[in-house]
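Figure 3 (text version): structure tokens given as input.
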């Protein structure tokens, strides 16, 4: 547990002790995101940068998620030649705000639609409405950081 003290006159509580920010190597980043869950996809939707939360699975060093056919990311990918990719970023994190500790992993690479005949790890969309478009992000860069008390 982090000891806290109150700043005089502000009513704000600050953590006591020092936090350290450390870089994570590629293997540790992959280990942290391997269970799957929810991440955020960052891309240009034609109107500027945007971020969309998606549930995903990790398939080797690639990330697979699904989206609706009418979704902006899918529409951007649908206009490409077969096999072409769009550069996107994908971020997953886990933080304990009470302890002010956690980690963040950023994956950057090329995303493309999967053809119906291509196999991939199965990801079941959380929303009830259909998400038939399957997207694969092939990692080019995987970086991460951990914040902790040491």
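Below: residues designed for each position.
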């Amino acid at each position: 547990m982090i000891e806290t003290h109150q700043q005089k006159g502000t009513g704000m509580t600050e953590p006591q002790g020092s936090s350290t920010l450390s870089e994570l190597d590629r293997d540790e980043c992959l280990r942290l995101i391997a269970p799957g869950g929810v991440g955020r996809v960052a891309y240009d939707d034609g109107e500027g940068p945007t971020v969309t939360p998606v549930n995903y699975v990790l398939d080797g060093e690639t990330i697979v998620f699904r989206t609706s056919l009418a979704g902006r990311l899918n529409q951007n990918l649908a206009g490409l030649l077969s096999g072409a990719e769009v550069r996107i970023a994908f971020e997953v994190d886990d933080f304990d705000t009470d302890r002010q500790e956690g980690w963040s992993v950023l994956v950057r690479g090329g995303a493309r639609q999967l053809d119906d005949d291509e196999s991939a790890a199965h990801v079941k969309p959380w929303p009830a409405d259909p998400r038939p478009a399957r997207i694969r992000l092939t990692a080019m860069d995987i970086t991460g950081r951990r914040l902790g008390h040491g």
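The two ends are 12 Å apart (CA to CA).
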